[in-house]
Specification:
- By secondary structure, this protein is of the alpha/beta class.
- It is built from nine helices and 14 strands.
- The protein binds pyridoxal-5'-phosphate (PLP).
- Residues 9, 74-76, 101, 147, 151, 171, 173-174, 192, 195 line the site of pyridoxal-5'-phosphate (PLP).
- Keywords: Amino-acid biosynthesis, Aminotransferase, Cytoplasm, Pyridoxal phosphate, Pyridoxine biosynthesis, Serine biosynthesis, Transferase.
- It catalyses: O-phospho-L-serine + 2-oxoglutarate = 3-phosphooxypyruvate + L-glutamate; 4-(phosphooxy)-L-threonine + 2-oxoglutarate = (R)-3-hydroxy-2-oxo-4-phosphooxybutanoate + L-glutamate.
- L-glutamate binds at residue 41.
Length: 359
Amino acid sequence: MRAYNFSAGPAALPLEVLQQAADEMLDWQGSGMSVMEMSHRGREYTSIHEAALGDLRELLAIPSSHRVLLMQGGGLAENAIVPLNLLGARRRADYVVTGSWSGKSQKEALRYCDAHVAVSTAAGGFVRVPSLDEWQLSPDAAYVHVCTNETVNGVEFAEVPALGDVPLVADISSHMLSRPLDIARYGALYGGAQKNVGIAGLTVVIVREDLLDRALAICPSAFEWKTVAQNNSMYNTPPTYAIYIAGLVCQWLKRQGGLAEIERRNIAKARLLYETIDRSAFYANPVQPDARSRMNVPFTLADESRNAAFLDGARERGLTQLKGHKSVGGMRASIYNAMPMAGVEALVDYMTAFEREQA
Ligand SMILES: *Cc1c(COP(=O)(O)O)cnc(C)c1O
């Protein structure tokens, strides 16, 4: 009855998580109320909040140098919140533009500083990750910003370079919790939860503690990382239900074997889909093999006039939300943690059958 949902976000959740949320909807663990109805200062919600924070730390192996903040506003708000918190006395920040999301980050930052494009891969159509020797870094940059998984273009950094003293800031919205990350390399990381961590309304920020004293005076208090950190992400009412769901997703991930195991599955799922695309003359993905995203797989049909028929046939088979982003066209299959291998197998079976029909 449930579809295989390939949405880029808000995206599919693990069935077990939805079932547990349903079971606990009216009465959370004998409290007599739904999580939605709890005071965020109460004993019950506090235990949910602490467990979610603890499980995020454990799964991502976050070192004690870094704080985890549970915020609101999504990835887009962070595009402003990052410069507001990190510029300090500096006027410049460097942006690595590898797709539409990092392009948006750079444009938003222009409201607050000289947001310098250190490198852009727009000319080639956002199909690669530029090597460090192409990055034109500024000596006076407050930070360097990257988007390590470009959700629209399907470009993912295999790893980020070590930059030395300048803080590296990463938008990890669409691959957070899909693989282990070396958090110590980063000054700050952020992402909306609705791709791979849970539901819309929660933004997870991970920030190195020594960077918490650089906020500009005009930064709204509720968006000042230091204030949020000092109040254990309860300066204002946190998105309690979204935090509860993120906590259930973390518990589910731990039951699966943690991020090393989920990464192994994500590699296998992505490999099957890219192999199907590459083997065929009918489907194409333009991204360089070493920069291909394991999470978001855009692909086009050789005969674009067949796009609507492809989507209709997919929907009939319970394969939904495959339409590509308008800026890239074609299709996009987002295969986050919650997409099982069986869903990717159903997709490639359908793709193979559809191609055969065209012959
Ligand atoms: C979805 C997404 C965003 C925007 O997130 P919102 O929660 O809608 O603000 C930003 N960056 C990346 C990489 C995304 O995938």
